[in-house]
Amino acid sequence: MQISRIAISLLLASALSPALAAQTDCPQHYAGGQAPDLLKPAMQQGARPLCFSAFGVVHSAVSRTPLWSAEYLTPARVAKAATLERKDSFHEEERLPEAERAELEDYRASGYDRGHLSPNHDMPDLQAQAESFSLANIVPQAPWANRGQWGDLEEAVRKRVKAGRSLHVISGPMFEGSQLAQLDGRVLVPSAMFKLVCDLQARQLVAFVLSNELRPAATPRYQQVSLVELERRLGMTLLPGVPEAAAFGKLVLPGTSTASR
């Protein structure tokens, strides 16, 4: 099912307004203590910041998905996460008004996975693990991506952290093009996904984009893109607390040698 023209125009509006800093009560999850800035008026509409114990999000009433989920991974945190067994507990986010949030029913028989942004396997304790299954941290994701290359990127980040680096990670959906699907007439389906990984101490970062096409003719490969290009496409400033971030060197993650653009 295709989304209405009104919703498309709200989401894809390219005109930029003065940046709206996403207020946050959990600066510990963000590089430089600041959440991304929203530049598109459409994204500013109905944007609600939410804090969880191990990650922070901004949720959109327009898409009924998060616009991003941010986490700070340390070797100690990842070591703790490795001791926990996965316990699925997907649930609606009760802090959001019913009219603005996704419901479990929206995903039923949709063909899409309930895809984590901040992944369950990054969560250091049972509370954080349960919170990661909130639909405020979930987007509709093509199964081949969620269970394949997206998961590969998540694991590559953890391997880098296990090697002794602390990393800031921002993951989120991208809504591009004029034909956007929706679940149950309510939840927008991303056209692609992005992941930004930043090592502040080493002054390095890397950004990835992965298609979210449900049934691609051939399995796409995630691409590395520059921070400048990613921010332009999203209509966000992803690292406002790190003004010099665009000049950072390239962060290399294990097993992620791909073409760059």
List keywords for this structure.
261 residues, alpha+beta, Extracellular Endonuclease, Chain A, eight-stranded mixed β-sheet, three-stranded antiparallel β-sheet, 7 helices, 15 strands, globular, Endo_G_ENPP1-like_dom, nuclease
Layout of helices and strands:
Blueprint: H1 5-12, E1 20-21, E2 37-38, H2 41-44, E3 47-51, E4 56-60, E5 65-73, H3 75-81, H4 104-107, E6 113-116, H5 126-132, E7 138-141, H6 143-162, E8 167-174, E9 182-183, E10 187-188, E11 192-199, E12 204-211, E13 223-225, H7 227-234, E14 236-237, E15 249-250
Parallel strand pairs: 12-15
Antiparallel strand pairs: 1-2, 2-14, 3-4, 4-5, 5-8, 6-7, 8-11, 9-10, 11-12, 12-13
Protein name: Endonuclease G
Domain ENPP1-3/EXOG-like endonuclease/phosphodiesterase: 52-245
GO molecular function, one term: endonuclease activity
Task: Describe the model.
Keywords: Endonuclease, Hydrolase, Nuclease, Signal. Residues 51-245 form the DNA/RNA non-specific endonuclease/pyrophosphatase/phosphodiesterase domain. InterPro entries: DNA/RNA_non-sp_Endonuclease_sf, Endo_G_ENPP1-like_dom, ENPP1-3/EXOG-like_nuc-like, His-Me_finger_sf, Non-specific_endonuclease. The chain has 261 residues and is an alpha+beta fold. The chain has a single domain, classed as Extracellular Endonuclease, subunit A (Extracellular Endonuclease, Chain A, 3-Layer(aba) Sandwich). It has 7 helices and 15 strands. The chain has helices at residues 5-12, 41-44, 75-81, 104-107, 126-132, 143-162, 227-234; strands at 20-21, 37-38, 47-51, 56-60, 65-73, 113-116, 138-141, 167-174, 182-183, 187-188, 192-199, 204-211, 223-225, 236-237, 249-250. Strands 3, 4, 5, 8, 11, 12, 13 and 15 form an 8-stranded mixed β-sheet that branches. The chain has a 3-stranded antiparallel β-sheet with strand order 1-2-14. It has a two-stranded antiparallel sheet with strand order 6-7. It is globular, with a radius of gyration of 17 Å. It starts with a helix and ends in an 11-residue tail after the last strand. The mean pLDDT is 92.
